[in-house]
Inverse folding.
């Protein structure tokens, strides 16, 4: 996605430029990092994501009639369709996400109405920071306000996941949508993906003199959705074996000892997938304890272990993400780092002492050049709040914050 340099606070002005009148509602939603708990959400386990200060914006205005017109600022492209024909043709690639949200609302029994909508994406796409969930969250919170639907953030997260699963066709879990709707600045969310119970856990690396750093490998995750769906099938298959052997229902009930005893009872690939999910669930719970007791050093060790498991057992890393892991392990002012998100490219995160960030960037860029990798983009991020929507007249104050 072409990045365009603007700020969410400029959205109403851009809307006027594109559509000739003021929007009714302006909404914004964040991208995310996942501190730990990778490929555990669709396995009904635990995750610990946090939102970052890369956001998307959606400005929208009611229109009489049945026509929906969406304009993407990043692509400078328009998607227009009749509310009854939103799935008759695929529309432009970027239009799949807002169309998916409209589809999910219609499936839920809500009536759709005409509108003009302007979308701006400030979350780098394909970087593993969940730009798609951010677009879904921005659009849905805007429509929730515009049409006074009264949906809770939890319900909206589920609807956005439904859009992704059944309209877009990626069998993702609930993590990305959940954090984009429910995040709080300075907090991560410890989410139980089975019960959807959650807890905001303070996550302010700054208090320990650290900063969360995002490493965008620049590797586009072309394989991501097919390999992602494959991992989801494999882990479900391995679970069937565990269910038969131990009478358990989900991975969270299984122990490492049980999976060790299964080593010869299942194909080695399935065994590795299962071992990752079981060990990762345990690491999430330990990470929550580490955060609560401000034991950042231990958190860092857990990040490194998570990466090893994703690289060796779940096999979703790539050389560029492994470089981040190696550097995080070796660099004295970094307490830990790992790939984040689905993998196969995209981003990683590291926790680095604030004063050493520039040096950390320099070293990693040097190593990337040596290995002929695409030069990575590395940014220090703040832990941000979730999706919100406002009447446009209030936006000038609110928009300042983003
Ligand atoms: C993607 C999906 C999430 C989650 C992660 C892996 O980001 O959208 O639901 O499965 O991959 O942890």
């Amino acid at each position: 996605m072409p990045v365009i340099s603007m700020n969410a606070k400029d959205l109403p002005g851009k809307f006027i430029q594109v559509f000739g009148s003021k929007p009714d509602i302006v909404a914004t939603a964040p991208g995310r990092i996942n501190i730990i708990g990778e490929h555990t959400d669709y396995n009904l386990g635990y995750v610990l994501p946090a939102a970052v200060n890369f956001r998307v914006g959606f400005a929208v205005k009611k229109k009489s009639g049945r026509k929906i017109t969406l304009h993407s600022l990043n692509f400078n492209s328009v998607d227009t369709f009749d509310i009854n024909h939103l799935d008759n043709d695929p529309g432009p690639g970027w239009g799949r996400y807002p169309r998916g949200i409209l589809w999910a609302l219609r499936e839920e029994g809500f009536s759709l109405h005409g509108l003009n909508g302007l979308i701006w994406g400030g979350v780098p796409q394909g970087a593993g920071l969940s730009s798609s969930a951010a677009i879904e969250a921005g659009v849905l919170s805007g429509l929730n306000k515009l049409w006074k639907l009264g949906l809770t953030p939890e319900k909206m997260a589920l609807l956005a996941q439904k859009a992704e699963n059944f309209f877009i066709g990626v069998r993702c879990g609930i993590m990305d949508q959940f954090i984009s709707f429910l995040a709080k600045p300075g907090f991560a969310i410890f989410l139980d993906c089975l019960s959807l119970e959650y807890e905001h856990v303070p996550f302010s690396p700054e208090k320990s003199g650290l900063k969360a750093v995002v490493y965008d490998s620049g590797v586009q995750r072309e394989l991501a959705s097919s390999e992602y769906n494959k991992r989801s099938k494999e882990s479900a298959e391995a679970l069937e074996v565990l269910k038969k052997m131990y009478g358990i229902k989900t991975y969270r009930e299984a122990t490492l000892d049980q999976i060790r005893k299964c080593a010869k009872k299942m194909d080695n690939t399935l065994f590795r997938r299962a071992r990752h999910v079981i060990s990762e669930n345990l690491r999430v719970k330990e990470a929550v304890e580490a955060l609560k007791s401000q034991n950042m050093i231990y958190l860092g060790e857990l990040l490194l272990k998570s990466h090893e498991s994703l690289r060796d057992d779940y096999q979703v890393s790539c050389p560029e993400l492994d470089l981040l892991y190696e550097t995080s392990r070796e660099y004295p002012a970094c307490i830990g780092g790992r790939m984040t998100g689905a993998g196969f490219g995209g981003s990683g995160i590291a926790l680095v002492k604030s004063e050493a960030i520039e040096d950390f960037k320099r070293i990693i860029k040097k190593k990337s050049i040596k290995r002929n990798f695409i030069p990575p983009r590395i940014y220090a991020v703040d832990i941000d709040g979730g999706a919100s929507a406002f009447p446009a007249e209030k936006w000038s104050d609110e928009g300042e914050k983003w």
